[in-house]
Amino acid sequence: MQTLAVDHPLVAHKLTTLRDVRTDSPTFRRLADELVTLLAYEATRDVRVTDVEVQTPVTRTHGVQLASPKPLVVPILRAGLGMLDGMTRLLPTAEVGFLGMVRDEGTLQAETYASRLPDDLSGRQCYVLDPMLATGGTLAAAIRLLLDRGADDVTALCLLAAPEGLRFLEDAFAGTRAPIRVVTAGLDERLNERGFIVPGLGDAGDRLYGVV
Ligand SMILES: O=P(O)(O)OC[C@H]1O[C@H](OP(=O)(O)OP(=O)(O)O)[C@H](O)[C@@H]1O
Ligand SMILES: O=c1cc[nH]c(=O)[nH]1
Ligand SMILES: [Mg+2]
User: Fold this and answer.
1) H or E segment at 33?
2) Residue of the nearest CA to atom 5 in ligand 2?
3) Which ligand 1 atom sits closest to the C-alpha of 110?
4) What is the C-alpha separation between 49 and 7, in angstroms, rounded?
5) Where are the beta strands (DSSP E) in 46-109?
6) Nearest residue CA, atom 6 of ligand 2?
7) Cα separation, 127 vs 29, whole angstroms
8) 137 within domain boundaries
9) What family is it from (predicted)?
10) Which residues contact 193 (CB under 8 A, 6 or more apart)?
11) Whether the complex's predicted ipTM surpasses the cut of 0.90
12) Does residue 131's CB lie within 6 angstroms of at least one atom of ligand 1?
């Protein structure tokens, strides 16, 4: 597994405001959206393309276009929905699948309550969106679902990742043939006793959409 923490002053600036407890939901949503577009630039570095010819007003030349089959973007509900527009802005032709997952705040185990994905993901590059990689249980279950359907390349985009979660994913997918990458805007210190990322930004779903 490869991990990339995007090191860029604009990313750091937006992430700092996102963390701030005083940032309200509308601002949080806008910043999350902007951050994803910056992360997506790095996360799609290996997106598959094919060579094409293009006629400019001056001459014919060579270029590329996104290859088939189209990439699949998979936001993990609820908080991952806040990253979808920022991603599809950069990859407008991608298809979108959905996974609904919730972590039991007592046991920290992830449960899948909704799944709307193509049955066959053979040869598909998949981009999973989830702002928080904490214990890694949610993301590991999501990546496993995609690999089981044949995905051969999975990149997760996270706003924050904890070292514990990254280690969990490393162990879970050690020896997996398909490339697996995590691209994050911030690599935080640790998890606290409630499984929250420290310093973190709190509950991403609540900050985006309100406390449920
Ligand atoms: O790495 P983990 O320990 O599994 O935790 C991370 C998960 O927890 C949060 O979702 P939550 O369960 O709060 O659902 P929500 O998006 O509906 O708020 C977050 O959005 C991740 O999906
Ligand atoms: O810090 C955390 C951990 C899990 N889920 C969140 O939304 N925040
Ligand atoms: Mg939540």
Assistant:
1) helix 25-43
2) 203
3) 4
4) 26
5) 49-55, 60-66, 72-77, 95-96, 98-103
6) 203
7) 20
8) yes
9) Belongs to the UPRTase family.
10) none
11) yes
12) yes
Asked whether residue 159 is domain-assigned, the answer is yes
88 is known to lie in a ligand binding site: no
pLDDT of 174: 96
Mean pLDDT of 114-138: 98
Instruction: List the domain range (segments joined by +) for residue 130.
Output: 2-48+71-192
Helix, strand, coil abundance in the chain, percent, nearest 5: 35, 30, 35
The pLDDT tens digits for 38-95 are 999 999 999 999 999 999 999 999 999 999 999 999 999 999 999 999 999 999 999 9
pLDDT in tens, 11-45: 999 999 999 999 999 999 999 999 999 999 999 99
Ligand 2 pocket test, candidate residues 196, 198, 211, most atoms within 8 A of CB: 196
pLDDT tens for 165-183 read 999 999 999 999 999 999 9
Residue 201 lies in a domain: no
For 193-212, give one letter per residue: b (16+ CB within 10 A) or e: eebbbeebbeebbebbeeee
Q: State what percent of residues in the chain have pLDDT above 70.
A: 100
Rounded distance, CA 82 to CA 86, Å? 8
- With respect to residue 61, please indicate whether it lies within any of the assigned structural domains: no
CATH of the domain at 134: 3.40.50.2020
